Amino acid sequence: GMQSHLQALLSLYKLFCPELVTITLPRKTKTYFKNSEGPWKAAISAVRQRNQRSSPLTQAAFLGITQPQSRKRKWNAQLAVPASSANNLEEDMAKNCVGLFSTNETFPVEQLQTFPQLLQNIHRLEFPSQMGSVLTNPLLLHYMNCIRDESIYLRLYYWMGQVLQEECTWCVVDNTDEKEFKNFLETAYKAECFLQEGFSACEEFLYKSLPLWDGSSCRPEVLKLMSWIPLSSFSEIKSYLYGPLAQLFFTSSIYFKCSVLESLKQLLQNWLNCNIIHMDPEYDS
After folding, report:
1. What pLDDT band is residue 150 in, cutting at 50, 70 and 90?
2. What family does the database annotate (predicted)?
């Protein structure tokens, strides 16, 4: 039939492979598919604007997503652990573990100073509302490792994903504060090293932004984050990681080549270490 969504699909086929579509389609067809060249056009426009040193654009794009004009929120505006304002994330667990502690009162997270305090109050902690304070607090990172609460990870990954998208210096046209973005990437990397596992938000950011990366902006930090990509299928790694890197690799200096190889070597080492941790003891050899 001539439903609008089928017409849109047929028009897309006719655009790229006209020999496959022999019927006549109406000229005006509702758009159901985004333009795949959007990210490239946005990246080229960003480079052109920077080279011309003209006024910042009022509208920026990150992989086809419109960037809000206001960028007042900064990722590091709240590094100190604030007074907790979130709901108690461990409430359900507390009901099931009544024998582990005698009171249901929460322990103020801003008073958490030592590891013994963490051990004594681990089931009474209320996670802070500002997720930025978690990345720089070893005790809260320990807490994340001990209490595998999915809601905590979802909050952290959502927040990190938003910051990475809005602050990326080579994807957002009017963002030229590379030093601040470098600091954030370095902080995320140190948190991954502490936890000995990569953040899925960082993995998603790398896969989306590497095709637009020039190989120069925040190079050390980007290569460090690459070394903590979680173990996945080779087809994913090949298309999302190796493909974009290969285009830069063959046209860059020997220093860049060595840096990429070192990062991939560290990635393999992290995979092996993670695999050994979860390996069955009888297959230890």
Report:
1. confident
2. Belongs to the CENP-I/CTF3 family.
